[in-house]
User: Fold these one by one.
Assistant:
Number 1:
Amino acid sequence: MLPQEAYQWQYVEGKMRHLASRWGYREVRTPVFEHTELFLRGVGDTTDIVQKEMYTFKDKGDRSITLKPEGTAGAVRSFIEGRMYADVLPCKMYYLNAPIFRYENPQAGRLREHHQFGMECFGGKDPTVEAELIEALLTLLKELGLENLSVHINSIGCPTCRAAYHKALREYLGGRLGEMCSTCQERFEKNPLRILDCKEEKCKKITAEAPSILDYLCDECRQHFERLQKLLEARKVPYKVDPRIVRGLDYYTKTVFEIIMQSGREGLALCGGGRYDGLVEQLGGPATPAAGFGIGLERILMELRSQGKLPEEPSVIDVYNAALTDEDRTLAFSLTEDMRLAGIKADCDHAERSLKGQFKYAGKLARYTVICGGDELERGNVRLRDMQTRQEEEVPLGEIIRRIGSLIGQKPTTEETVKG
């Protein structure tokens, strides 16, 4: 990310922080790397992330370390080690601009190092948690300007009812196992549910008529899923029940969901999440229901750029203080520092440019330019120029900070004084 792109990231991140605070989520920051065991136990050894995409290495103490391939496992570890389960629940956390590392073929919106925004809720077993997360995601994407959004939801049950579905799925797929890709053949015994997530066309055709897990849900999981649908309908959230959504992580239970944006003939999955009621206990904590989602910043920025939904780049500074002569440079520098202390973004010449050169430089960065020196200074004034309209006015030196503050709509943060 280059400096001229930073404002775009800050704009999106600002929207995300504001949204998280409105929903009552507080920020958590977890390490860039964790012990490899955390992801083997949490993410699951049948996932593509663990099998193919993790950056794993030994440190100097011969410990296996992995660069973080997703955000939830680290958030769960922090929840356990911070003993947050002993506080008032539910505990709501979000992470932002968290670097995620996956060794996969780089493609549009997918980079080997990318960044995610995620919201995780611990201690809420009611489907209002998933409904809340889904509406938060939709609100964020709409406030960013994205349109044609829909929610795809599914229930993948719990370990109890999933066992019966695995048996039915193996029976359906067993006769055509040799026709499937090598990855799906490996998944057949370990986790046949993941076969439904395969992107290979031949595997998608084979599973097109596979049994639906929704027909195998236990009473608790079915009631949970039905209540989620009622909640979404009450909020008029457009959704579609999609039995093929299983997500790519082993820790999910019951609800899984994705936000789809229609783009051309196909829908683009912008983000997703779901419930993971067993993960906290699996990683050594007390039994705690939980749910969350993750969304890639690069993917969102790519869509906003392509649709022209990002704001124009703001001025780097509010005002540039130009010096008419070398003798006026001290005043221009001192005025710049006083403006900064007053909360105004300001700069001055650091390259000994001519006045013409200073104006050329200021025209690229600032909305206003203050010219220090000449007859105006002898009268105790400076000249103020609007770099967009080219209009100028003469302002008393002692009033210039207040004048700039009024123009940019900012209240000064310190006493407005100008030395010298």
Number 2:
Amino acid sequence: MCERCISDARRAGLSRRFFLTAGVGFAAGAAGLASPADARTGTVVTGDEALKRLMAGNARYVANKPRRRDFSAGRAARARSQHPFASIVSCADSRVAPELAFDQSAGDLFVVRVAGNFVNEDGLASLEFGAAILQSPLIMVLGHTRCGAIASTIDVVKNGTQLPGHLPALVSAIRPAVEAVQKAGAADLLAEATEANVLLNVERLKTAGPIIAQRVAEKKLTIAGGVYDLATGKVKLI
């Protein structure tokens, strides 16, 4: 057998072993998570209940009255498993910290972050893991005011600015929202593009097959959108 054939066979064997191992791992993770249960109370959490919990936490954050927490408490339990009640698609902006903005503790939120808070292939796979394996009943797409990724996309669309490196990939993902509100004659292009970008990604998730769309259809998963105000800390649902 030629060296190339041996190499191909070895790669094929490795691929089979990888997928078999991954499948066992995913199955084992799912086995202990039959329903989206609150790890503290054992009760099943619905998408609507999860959203109310997020917004109640945000109200505490805005009022500067967060809950007191012992971060060492529950650490051993979290080392064994995780039970996040919500998944968040957030911008990578350093001023936006979902656990703080919603006054939640370690293990409560499953967070996917990327500049511009859009859903790409990798982000979608992560959210599928959160929904199917961790049984999170809610996904929130969280934009924020004065977003640099949105502002940069506006600059590219309006002025033809050329961005270096891999930044054009961010622009390509955000461009549809900017062009849509620009065409509609937006009075505040940055604010309206920020909301439009959130809504476009909410709609994409609702129809993202096979996992997310199916769970939405079965009413096992709720998709919501919000915008975080950097000046006040308040999250507005949109």
Number 3:
Amino acid sequence: MNRVSVSSASAVFVKSLLVATLALGNAAIAAEAQPAAKPDAAKGATLYDSGDTARGLPACLSCHGANGNSTIAANPKLSAQFEAYTHKQLVDFTTPQRNNPVMSTYAKMLTEEDKRNIAAYLATQKVKPGAAKNKDTVELGRKIYRGGIADKGVAACASCHGAAGSGIPAQYPRLAGQHQDYTMTQLTAFKSGTRANSPQMTTLAQRLSEAEMQAVADYIAGLR
């Protein structure tokens, strides 16, 4: 009788354990199947314009300007940028692939929801156009942007970012009107490896001379 009782108890225990395991597995699958909450652009606007003093979050506006139209040449214009791209960059700033003393600190303070909300807000804003400044290099910049440099294995920037710099949603960022200084800084960072979140851009930048990068950066500023 004891042997039968023990055997029966073991069977019940194993069955209960199996049921519990299956239940946990189904719960995990159900949780993963839940769609992510839709980004709230209005919350993103509030965070962008005012920050969150309770969490020590500064306003993005102070560096990137009203509606994402930065007036500081070293800081990028963020208006009209693709939502998925802006979100990815905010995530990348929390990794070694895109380490920046200011942005990495800030991005690590943001929740996933914050990142998505800010990205959604910026995607709805209208960008203010820029202009090329160096008339002596505009033609070189145009040639590289539109046709690349065949003998260096440099593809045309337009092949990924579009003839007018409008980019390809969720794949390649919008570039039109971006500050020359900021674009040049990023190309230099890609070339040196200090920005390592795009192997494709690292390869291309390493094949460009400083003069070629400057020409492209200036040309991009005038795209619209």
